[in-house]
């Protein structure tokens, strides 16, 4: 993936976006800077519904999206629903009542928004499902990273680090998945397990707890304390005698944070297990520097916001949206157009724009995160999100 300097990300991406969908001549945010967000000179209003501010990544997503659309001349309404589905429904209903022209929704529960999505559809409001697919046919497009690939990257990291193709083993592994209400969580877990299962079936990897089903290892709301509690229970039940755990698959950073805490406080083994993650949260990057977490799969949400903006502009300008958007936009990062992988109902595929995630470790975090401008590094070697 080509590099982007974050300090310039919003302004440079904005210039890119304006050139991409307008052909250089529309009024969507160009000219005087007051911007109308439409060809008609009429200001368009965009509703941005985010799930929560309790996870670091959603603050980043919300901030990038809000800045992108405002800079392009759109009026925005942004809400965070505190991981409360009823509140998210109410937030979106209020946006509909306020006459938004486009909804960008990162769902708390992809299967719990049917009523309000139907209301948006009846009002003729196009919907972009952001990062998490919403299981409703009124969704116009889906913008996310390749979620299955996120899982395969985590699984492959474990395979490569343990050298499972050559080492004799067996090695012990435990699994922590994400929120059952989050449609992405199943893709993350399945991607990882498709890589790991051949080694589990051959006996080279052993899940000592026996807990391999998604439902058994899922973590409600991706909650760190929930992941911590379960990890402590697993360690007390299966590893109290000093049995070694070699790897712990964690689907994201908030769950990895809980597992790392449990390893530090409750693990009696002498080794430091491999712990995977996802998102590049600040506390987890510190853990990677300190050797308490092994990797994270980083998703450049600034780029996800760029895709969402250019897609939103094309929709609001009445343009035909397909894979040509990628070519016309000329983004300096990888993205694919997919019409087959994600379905909102049986037989109804949702056109999707999928970005490519990246593996970040202690060895490459400066190259991947600091040199690209996403983070700064302090004198102690710790990373902090760039202002």
Your description of this structure?
With 387 residues, the chain is α/β, with parallel strands linked by helices. The chain folds into 2 domains: 197 residues, Rossmann fold, CATH 3.40.50.2300; 132 residues, Rossmann fold. 41% of the residues lie in helices and 17% in strands. It has 13 helices and 17 strands. The strands form 5 sheets. The protein has a 7-stranded mixed sheet with strand order 2-1-3-4-5-14-11, with helices on both faces. A 4-stranded parallel sheet has the order 7-6-8-9, with helices on both faces. It has a two-stranded antiparallel sheet with strand order 10-15. Strand 12 and strand 13 form a beta hairpin. Helix 2 packs across helix 11 and helix 5 packs parallel to helix 6. It is globular and about 70 Å long. The N terminus is likely disordered.
> What is the count of β-strands?
17
Poorly predicted tracts of residues: 1-36
Radius of gyration: 21 Å
CATH secondary-structure class of the largest domain: Alpha Beta
Q: Tally the helices.
A: 13
The outline comes out as globular
- Give the CA-CA distance, first to last residue: 22 Å
Counting structural domains, the number is: 2
Estimated helix fraction: 40-55%
Order of helices and strands: HEHEHEHEEHEHEHHEHEHEHHEEEEEHEE
Spatial order of the strands in the main sheet? 2-1-3-4-5-14-11
Report on the biggest sheet.
7 strands, mixed
CATH architecture of the largest domain: 3-Layer(aba) Sandwich
Q: How much is the average pLDDT?
A: 90
- Within CATH, the superfamily of the largest domain carries the name Response regulator
């Amino acid at each position: 993936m080509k590099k982007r300097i974050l300090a310039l990300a919003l302004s440079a991406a904005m210039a890119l976006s304006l050139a991409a969908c307008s052909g250089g001549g529309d009024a969507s945010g160009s000219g005087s800077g007051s911007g109308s967000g439409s060809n008609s000179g009429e200001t368009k209003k965009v509703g941005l519904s985010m799930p929560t501010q309790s996870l670091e990544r959603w603050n980043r997503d919300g901030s990038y999206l809000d800045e992108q659309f405002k800079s392009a001349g759109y009026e925005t309404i942004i809400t965070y629903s505190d991981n409360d589905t009823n509140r998210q429904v109410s937030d979106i209903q209020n946006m509909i009542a306020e006459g938004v022209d486009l909804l960008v929704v990162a769902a708390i529960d992809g299967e719990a928004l049917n009523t309000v999505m139907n209301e948006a559809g009846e009002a003729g409001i196009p919907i972009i499902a952001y990062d998490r697919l919403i299981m409703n046919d009124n969704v116009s497009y889906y913008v996310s990273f390749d979620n299955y690939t996120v899982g395969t990257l985590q699984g492959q990291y474990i395979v490569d680090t343990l050298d499972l193709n050559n080492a004799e083993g067996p090695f012990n592994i435990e699994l922590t998945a994400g929120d059952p209400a989050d449609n992405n969580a199943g893709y993350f877990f399945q991607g990882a397990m498709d890589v790991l299962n051949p080694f589990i079936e051959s006996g080279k990897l052993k899940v000592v707890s026996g807990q391999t089903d998604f439902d058994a290892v899922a973590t409600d709301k991706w909650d760190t304390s929930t992941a911590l509690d379960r990890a402590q229970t697993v360690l007390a039940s299966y590893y109290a005698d000093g049995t070694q755990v070699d790897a712990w698959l964690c689907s994201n950073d908030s769950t990895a944070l809980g597992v790392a805490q449990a390893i530090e406080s409750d693990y009696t083994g002498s080794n430091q297990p491999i712990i995977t993650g996802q998102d590049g949260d600040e506390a987890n990057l510190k853990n990677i520097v300190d050797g308490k977490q092994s990797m994270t799969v980083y998703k450049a949400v600034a780029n996800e916001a760029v895709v969402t903006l250019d897609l939103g502009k094309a929709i609001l300008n009445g343009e035909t949206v397909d894979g040509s958007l990628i070519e016309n936009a000329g983004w300096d990062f990888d993205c694919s157009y997919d019409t087959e992988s994600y379905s909102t109902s049986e037989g109804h595929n949702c056109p999707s724009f999928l970005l490519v995630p990246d593996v970040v470790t202690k060895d490459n975090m400066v190259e991947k995160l600091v040199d690209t401008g996403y983070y700064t590094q302090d004198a102690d070697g710790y990373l902090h999100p760039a202002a």
